[in-house]
Amino acid sequence: MQDLTKLTDQELGDFFNSFDTILADIDGVLRNVLQPIPGSVEAIKSLKKMGKQFTFVTNNTTKSVDTLYQELKAAGFDVEKSEIVTPLAPMVSHLQKQNLPRKTVFVIGMPVIKQALKDAGFTLAPNGPDRFKDAIEVFSSLAIEDDGSVEAVICDVDMNLNYLNLQKAATFLERPEVIFIAGATDVKFPVGKGNRILIGPGIFIQILERMTKRTAIKIAKPSPFLNEFIVEKYGIKDRSRVLFIGDSIPEDMGFAGNCGYKKLLVLSGLAKKSSLENWEFEEKCKPEFYVDSLKEVHELALRLFGK
Ligand SMILES: [Mg+2]
């Protein structure tokens, strides 16, 4: 693991010449919440000027690609809608390939996921109710109700997640033929100033896996599942010429490690310098390079190429 800013000009030149394609995470790399990380707008511009191809890869399914695009554009990023990937499209495409006879799914997730599935012709089994005032007997009879119509359970970020929906998912998953799909498995969800951490959706997926003794098909980073979609969509041929820039060691660096990409860790989001000094992750997650933020990448590119 080398500090990018400590490289000689020769080494830095070799670094910039070692990749043609950049896969970059969004939150913690380009922005924190909706605020661009200082220097990140300029860094994307200068890397694009160098001819690098970009794909922005986020685990965030709380927003549509269209919304993410609008937000990044409004923040001044040089980004195209076609350059943004979330786990949503590969999730829908995987479900479509299963040829489910009833196309009926149960979703723990935000309205964006539900809408995407509806648009793809799926029927959503009812969630809820959202509030429960009755006795446990009523709750439990609702929670174990299963008419056998649900063919897949999808679990992702749901800011309105409740006990009943989690239990309903567990009930459906008791039938072994029901497909179990997980979106983001992040156990930490950084938000707001000072990177306050929320409980990530991965914790709830773990509850379902533990309860049902089943393993979900993971769609988001670090799963290589997402990569199959990326490779196909963007025609990536030589993985050794791809650089992944991310702020999360398990998700981003893990993904890059699973896919055979070069890794640049930025310390502007989840990962801190202390995580590098006291390494507690798998070896495959170790980034070749790290840097405080994209601001330094921009400054290094300026120093070397004057652009
Ligand atoms: Mg991130």
Write structural notes for this entry:
The structure is a single chain. The chain is an alpha/beta fold. It has two domains: 157 residues, 3-Layer(aba) Sandwich (Rossmann fold), CATH 3.40.50; 131 residues, Rossmann fold. The chain is built from twelve helices and 16 strands. The strands form four sheets. The chain has a seven-stranded parallel sheet, with helices on both faces. A five-stranded parallel sheet has the order 8-7-9-10-13, sandwiched between helices. It starts with a strand and ends with a helix. The model has no long low-confidence stretch (mean pLDDT 94). Bound molecules: magnesium ion (MG). Magnesium ion (MG) binds next to loops.
Number of strands: 16
Class from secondary-structure proportions: alpha/beta
Mean pLDDT: 94
CATH superfamily assignment of the largest domain? HAD superfamily/HAD-like
Discrete helix count:
12
Name of the top-level CATH class of the largest domain: Alpha Beta
- Indicate the low-confidence ranges by residue numbers: none
Radius of gyration (CA) equals 21 Å
**What is the 3D form?**
elongated
Largest sheet: 7 strands, parallel
Bound molecules: magnesium ion
Question: What is the correct CATH architecture of the largest domain?
Answer: 3-Layer(aba) Sandwich
Which sequence of strands runs across the widest sheet? 1-16-15-14-2-5-6
Give helix and strand order, one letter per element, not per position.
EHEEEHEHEHEHEHEHEEEHEHEHEHEH
How much of the sequence lies in strands comes to 15-25%
CATH third-tier fold name of the largest domain: Rossmann fold
The helicity comes to: 25-40%
Give the N-to-C terminal Cα separation: 26 Å
Number of domains: 2
GO molecular function: metal ion binding; phosphatase activity
Cofactor: Mg(2+)
Pfam families: Hydrolase_6, Hydrolase_like
InterPro entries: HAD-like_sf (IPR036412), HAD-SF_hydro_IIA (IPR006357), HAD_sf (IPR023214)
